[in-house]
Amino acid sequence: MNRRIIRALAPAAVLGVAVLGAISVVAGSGAGASTTPTTAAGTVAQAQAATTTTTVPNAAYQTTRENAGTANSSVQVFNSSGKLVAYGNKNITYVAPSSSLIPLGEAVFMQNCASCHGVEANGVPANGTPGAYPNLRGLGPATIDFWVESGRMPAADPRSVQAERHPPRLSHTDALAIAAWVNSLDPATPYIPHINSISSASVSDGFSLFALNCAACHTITGGGDALAAGTNAPSLRNIPATQVAEAIRTGPGNMPRFTGNLSDAQVRNIVAYVTGYIQHPSNPGGFGLGGLGPVAEGFVGLALGVGILALIAFWIGDRS
User: Fold this and answer.
1) Among 290, 114, 87, 64, which residue's Cα sits nearest to residue 194?
2) Which of 117, 152, 147, 113 minimizes the C-alpha distance to 135?
3) Of the four, 12, 114, 146, 249, which is 20 to 30 A from 59 by CA?
4) Least confident interval from 79-83, 113-117, 129-133
């Protein structure tokens, strides 16, 4: 009788143990998944990469055209934090100043620039007069670097109509440092341009583009000329390639900015023409008279040539 009861209850006991075991396994696996998920090594790396978001600063001078001075270029380089540090293509590479220069830039700015542009580089000086001097925030490193490297800033006379080019008062490192600090306040492009393989640029195309876009102010010989209200278009005969490109992209002073209508390839061609034929002209006829142009050369020819001939004629007349 006892054996019959045991045989009847045995299957039920086995079934109960199995059910309880299944419940415990399911509960245990659920708890483990919520705390320590098992993920493949490759998936972890992908997840970490996905959490690093890339940031592209606003363009100070907007354009939708690719490879025209703003970050929408063929090549973009980001650092480990996802910050855009360089962009460009085979013609021009735009590079941001190193972030390690920011502390130096702040110190140099406070010593040389803050009295006019304000301690926050927003154009509000110590007397609190807004708009008295330009706001530098959001202009991009190329703008800041151009004005400092060309010796126009710090200005000898902040109230002059136009800041003239001078030997730079600050070093190259100081200029980059100021650009790095100002750009850290409100990041923007364009970055500082570096011309690639300028020797292989098309000088003939550069001359055509220069004649179309630049000669009206700078003259066809690049000697510069007077403009309205006491301003002038400066001479281009002693300007480094980087500053030529910076001026084209940022439009300092009265100069229009050429961002969008000129590609990087076209800018490189203009730079090649300016730094080549304008700064090192060929004078197959002899003395170039400074490349001042046909009017000035004609005046010199008239004054000297006719004058010398007149003296010779008088000399011959006296002898006779």
Assistant:
1) 87
2) 117
3) 114
4) 129-133
How much is the pTM? 0.76
84: tokens are: 């855009």
Which domains, from first to last, does the chain contain?
Answer: 97-190 (1.10.760.10), 201-283 (1.10.760.10)
**H runs (alpha helix) in the chain:** 2-35, 41-51, 102-112, 114-117, 141-149, 172-185, 203-213, 215-218, 241-250, 264-273, 294-300, 307-319
CA gyration radius, the chain: 35
Q: Angle 243-244-248 (CA atoms, 0-180°, nearest 5)?
A: 110
Tell me the pLDDT tens digit for each residue of 165-174: 999 999 999 9
Strand partners, 94: 87, 193
How many angstroms separate the CA atoms of 49 and 207, rounded? 47
| CA distance linking residue 137 with residue 140, whole number of Å | 8
What does the pLDDT look like over 257-297, one tens digit per residue?
988 789 999 999 999 999 999 998 877 666 666 666 666 67
Closest CA to 225 of 211, 240, 238, 214: 214
Per-residue tokens: 233: 């278009």
Torsion, CA 27, CA 28, CA 29, CA 34, rounded to 10: 90
Two tokens at 124?
């509000």
